[in-house]
Amino acid sequence: MSPRQIEVSEPREIGITELVLRDGHQSLLATRMAMEDMVGACADIDAAGYWSVECWGGATYDSCIRFLNEDPWERLRTFRKLLPNSRLQMLLRGQNLLGYRHYEDEVVDRFVDKSAEAGMDVFRVFDAMNDPRNLEHAMAAVKKVGKHAQGTICYTISPVHTVEGYVKLAGELLDMGADSIALKDMAALLKPQPAYDIVKAVKDTYGDVQINVHCHSTTGVTQVSLMKAIEAGADVVDASVSSMSLGPGHNPTESVVEMLEGTGYTTKIDMARVYKVRDHFKKIRPKYAEFESKTLVDTKIFDSQIPGGMLSNMESQLRAQGAADRTDEVMAMVPICRKDAGYPPLVTPSSQIVGTQAVFNVLMGEYKVMTGEFADMMLGYYGASPAPRNPEVIALAAEQAKKEPITVRPADLLAPEWDSLVEQASALPGYDGTEEDVLTFALFPGVAPTFFEHRKEGPKSVARTEAQMKAAAEGQANALSGPITYNVTVNGASHTVSVEPA
Amino acid sequence: MSPRQIEVSEPREIGITELVLRDGHQSLLATRMAMEDMVGACADIDAAGYWSVECWGGATYDSCIRFLNEDPWERLRTFRKLLPNSRLQMLLRGQNLLGYRHYEDEVVDRFVDKSAEAGMDVFRVFDAMNDPRNLEHAMAAVKKVGKHAQGTICYTISPVHTVEGYVKLAGELLDMGADSIALKDMAALLKPQPAYDIVKAVKDTYGDVQINVHCHSTTGVTQVSLMKAIEAGADVVDASVSSMSLGPGHNPTESVVEMLEGTGYTTKIDMARVYKVRDHFKKIRPKYAEFESKTLVDTKIFDSQIPGGMLSNMESQLRAQGAADRTDEVMAMVPICRKDAGYPPLVTPSSQIVGTQAVFNVLMGEYKVMTGEFADMMLGYYGASPAPRNPEVIALAAEQAKKEPITVRPADLLAPEWDSLVEQASALPGYDGTEEDVLTFALFPGVAPTFFEHRKEGPKSVARTEAQMKAAAEGQANALSGPITYNVTVNGASHTVSVEPA
């Protein structure tokens, strides 16, 4: 019997993971926030009393080198320095690491090693297919370096997903030595009752294992789900400071703290610090307005199961093909493709793979053209699916991709690749000779060369400047800061005229 | 024992009051929505299966005649026609009706009579001081015309506000014949635990009385409060369709419906209809962007107890005095004034009265100049306060206002006034001879004359036009899509100039 069942009069302490430095801006501002806009909040974040501070992994690595000319390893080391009292947390896509393919085990080991060395404490490890074999090597690597290995259940809804299934998966994660279990609701699909049922069943089955619950807020129900998860025994919940919350983001940190007042639960959060963090990001957020999602609440996700990010992705694909009017057809196609693929959760990269195939099916006919990734998914190269896949589509995939279906762990088919990666990276101008650079090349071979070449130029923020913010606020017509050139026709004669403020 | 305690296997049905036609746009768009922007949603609202549709009262009457040149009684009759299957609901400030002073009982009777005649079904009656004597005549008037009299508890936080106090107030409302009890959380202060405790205690004390719970969403905790209120036995909860929700508004209707799935509670809401309502207001809302509040989440309200609307009001008063930098002092002064006044809830009109006095105290010294309204509040002319008022400030109020403190029901001091109101209204150009016009004059004597005079010109929307929306979307300077022709005079000579992007 756990202490909480005896001392009912003592409120149980709930931990909070602050997300603003990673998933907060990833979900709200397309991961575009520059390090310079985060450093000012770190002292207060560090002192606020969070269970952990998520600040790395997910899409941040990609964004650092693709958009911001920042070295992601430098970013991690900076966070380590600025957050000396905090557990740093990252999101790791199991055998995919932070890339979009499976890596051979040695690459996984080296990545985890270097991340721990640079200061990472808590590794939240997940797999888009919920295939435990895709997590086990990364989990073992984390254990080996003595860090916190958090095994993740990706929550989704389908005819084959049940509370019992999630409990079984939790058991498999615990068998790997998971120090805690994360229930990850990346699409805001987790309603209060299943939140309660899953957490309760995991606790009832495995005793007092630590459970962390991660919800997005898009459907407007998940603040309640966090409450019910806590009532069922959850130990830590994720939140993002209010000025970087809601919509496709997360529930507000302050609101999570406040909702517990007077209940049998409490937090040790220093709200004065949180308000400083809030005020910091309140000023920063408008600088990234152009990257901001417009969605605030959308419960239609419950029907379509299409996360917001995936939807906007599909819409831009359709627009590019001049088929913007076919969104509804694609939305109806997604559940079909997902069923054929054995009901994978929709999360990076499965969401993109299923979404793109749905677009192809609508534009070119059902499975007339299969993407390489979707064929791979059908053939088992992303791992086992929650339910059996459609045999007819498997056959088509084999035919189009000229590959055989597999049932082994996908990474078992990979030959050692580290030496080759070192060799390739070494040939790139700007490569600095570190394992970190080899990993950057391994994860993003298309982007790394340009990044290495231009790294010396230093971080390049994509935020609006002070002057641009001011100009935007003042309106445009009267905010000419430099000359604008017009073709002006006067009495039938054309002139090139340059206009600027007098 | 109520049926729900026996049949635990059958989900208990929860009703929803849809707020979008009144408090939704009042809270988000400063009550500026024109009737023409609501009619298109009515058929779907009417068929969605709500317990009631709030569509009148509060600030809408004032806004109709002050800003929109709409006759509020016409608006009510139109809603009655367009929502034939719905219970129409209004918010009524007890003896204040929809104005800002106390009215003599006959005026209250006539107002309720005419509202019922025009189609009102459910009267949510409240008093800003929670003084039952200020509600009892209005409640009796509603009972007399055979309509639903909903007695209201205004929820607030103070050292003297307790669950027991709210239960006692509920009992006094039931003694007046209340058909239901509303727990009204106008400032989003109601946390989950007190929501549960109050609803539970009222049910435990008085049996199965219907309880409606109304929360704003500003603090980000009240969706959870609605859940806990439902678990405690609440029967109806208020919500506003998602495209007109959150921030200083309310929890999203769709999210309230969805959060109950799989629990012991259910609704009979037709989501297909709700989505049509959502899509309707998604298009309408941007037309009123200039009136929109910027606040999305603010938990600081828990400390200051200053509702968002009150804060922006105080800030604009300070700006007008060139003292915008003194907001913090005023925010610290509000709790002092509120304590001196005996801890009234802060809601129209008490929020404005306390807020304005706080501004005066900061600018001119503590109680050096008292507003007439604050002096009246100190002297009992708004009713009894929850706690004793500060005797020193009462003495100052008596001195400055040259009035004696009272302990009777304020309206008891009023002489019959209906005949005089008729006489005054009759003298106004444009007065149409109806009791409705007399009531309009009684409620807003300063605005009614202009409205009567211009009523014939018909409704005047303050929304952006289609063209303005388009121009705003395209941006200004660089939104020249075709040549624009100007007449330009240079050094006295006129030229026809055509300009287009180079």
From TrEMBL, chains A, B:
Its lineage reads: Bacteria, Bacillati, Actinomycetota, Actinomycetes, Propionibacteriales
Domain (Pyruvate carboxyltransferase) ranges:
14-275
Q: Which GO terms describe its biological process?
A: gluconeogenesis
This one is known as Sodium-extruding oxaloacetate decarboxylase subunit alpha
The record, for InterPro entries, names: Aldolase_TIM (IPR013785), Carboxylase_cons_dom (IPR003379), PCB-like (IPR055268), PYR_CT (IPR000891)
Q: Which gene encodes it?
A: oadA
Q: Can you name a GO cellular component term?
A: cytoplasm
NCBIfam families per UniProt? PRK09282.1, PRK12330.1
Query: What would be an example GO MF term here?
Result: pyruvate carboxylase activity
The organism's superkingdom is given as Bacteria
